[in-house]
Write a structure and sequence with these properties.
This protein has about 130 residues and is mostly helical. Helix content is about 70%, strand content about 5%. The N and C termini lie far apart (about 50 Å).
């Protein structure tokens, strides 16, 4: 029963997730809306975005990495796990770029785009390439 609830919770994520927390000229951070994912995943995913927004980049990177690890163990449809992993990688990439770790940040954004060709992920990659003059 617990697995079913977890699957349903993760299944509803794509219909009510991924709100952007920035304007068009800045990076976009993805968050999970309240109570649509298991608590540890929701907390780490959203805490990552909030720490980036608060300029706590080292903490954000650590928390995003935890969210990515939690997603690897998620019992949900593969395409949904891929999309959420893409969002978490994008958030971590933004944290790394803001912390001046450009190589790791770009690597995360390219990997995120490979996993899910989402508009917000694409925006972040394009924005990073413009900022770094690539």
């Amino acid at each position: 029963m617990k697995t079913l609830i977890k699957t349903i919770a993760l299944g509803s994520l794509l219909t009510c997730s991924a709100a952007a927390m920035a304007d068009q000229s800045d990076y976009k951070l993805m968050v999970i809306e309240a109570q649509t994912a298991p608590q540890p995943l929701e907390q780490s995913f959203n805490s990552c975005a909030l720490n980036v927004k608060s300029k706590n980049y080292a903490e954000a990177e650590q928390i995003c990495t935890k969210a990515i690890a939690l997603l690897q163990d998620a019992d949900a449809p593969k395409f949904k796990v891929r999309q959420l992993t893409s969002f978490a990688l994008s958030n971590r990439g933004v944290a790394r770029l803001k912390a001046k770790n450009e190589t790791a940040g770009l690597a995360d954004l390219y990997e995120a785009k490979q996993l899910s060709n989402n508009d917000m992920v694409s925006h972040n990659l394009t924005r990073a390439k413009e900022e770094l003059a690539l």
